[in-house]
Amino acid sequence: MLRLRFHLLSTAAVLMAAAALLAPAQVQAETYHTCKGFIDSVPATISQQGVWCLRQDLSTGIASGSVIIVAANNVTIDCNGFKLGGLGAGAGTATRGISADGRYNATVRNCSIRGFYYGTYLAGGGGHLVERNSYDSNTLGAIRVLGAGSTIRGNQVIDTGGSTLSTTNAYGIYAANGVDVIDNTVNGVAAIGANKTAYGILTGANGDGSITANRVRGLEANGAGSTYGIYGNSDREVMRDNDVQQGAGVAGSIGVRCAGNQATARDNVISGFAIGVQGCLSSGNTVNAN
C-alpha cells in the first residue's frame, strides 16, 4: 500500500512538473533573466549598453522631451508587457515615449506605449529593431525610425492622431533610410489639421527597405485631405503582400502609392480606395474599388 501511494505521488509530481513546463510564461517575466538593469521611474536616460527592463507600469504627465532616452549604442528597452503612458499631458503633448538620436542597434520590444506625440522615435544611426509593441492614442505618429538596416515588425498601432499641438498630417508608421516594415497592424489614423491627410505607413528615402505583410485600415482624412494606406516616397522600394482597406472611398484616396515605377507593388490586397495602386511597377495586386 505504501509503495502504491509513493508511486501515485511520484506520478503526480511528474505530471505537475510537465504541466509547469508546458504552461505559458507570464509576459511580465519573459526576459528578466537577461536584464542588465531596471527602469523604475521616468524620465530616464540609459547611458550603458545592455537590456533595460520595466517591471511595472510607468506613466508621466511631462509635456515635452522624452520619457526614456537611449543615450548609448546596443541598448534594448524591454517593457515585459508593461505600460509606458503619457496620457496625463493631454492632446497638446510634445513628448516622445522612447527616443534615440544617432545611436546604433537600439531595440524597443514588448511595450505598451500610450499618449505621446511620438510613441517611439529612433533617428539616425542604424540597426534598430522595434518589435512586438502596442501603440495606442499617440497624437502624431506611433513609430518613427530612420536608420539603415533597421526593422519594424509585429507591432499593433491603433488610434493615432488628435494632436492639438500640430495641425498636420498623421501617420501610424514612418520609416526612412533603409527600414523593413514587416507584419504590423495599423488600425485607426486620423488627420489632425484642416484638409490634412492620414497615412497608414509612410516612407521616405527608403529604397533599401521593404513594406511586407502589413495590415492597414481605419484611415480618416480631414476635410479635403486624403488617405493613403501605404505611401512609398522612395525609388526601388518593395511593397508586397499587404492588406490595405477602408470602409468608404475618399476622393483621391490611394491604397498603395509609389514614387515611381522603379518601386514595386506586388500581391497586395486593396479595398475601398478611389485608386488602388499608383506610380508603382505593379503585379498581382487585387483591387476592390469603392
UniProtKB/TrEMBL annotation:
Superkingdom of the organism of origin: Bacteria
Signal peptide: 1-29
Keyword presence, Phosphoprotein: no
InterPro entries noted in UniProt: Pectin_lyas_fold, Pectin_lyase_fold/virulence
Entry keyword set: Signal
Record bears the keyword Signal: yes
Protein name listed in UniProt: Right-handed parallel beta-helix repeat-containing protein
Organism of derivation: Luteimonas salinilitoris
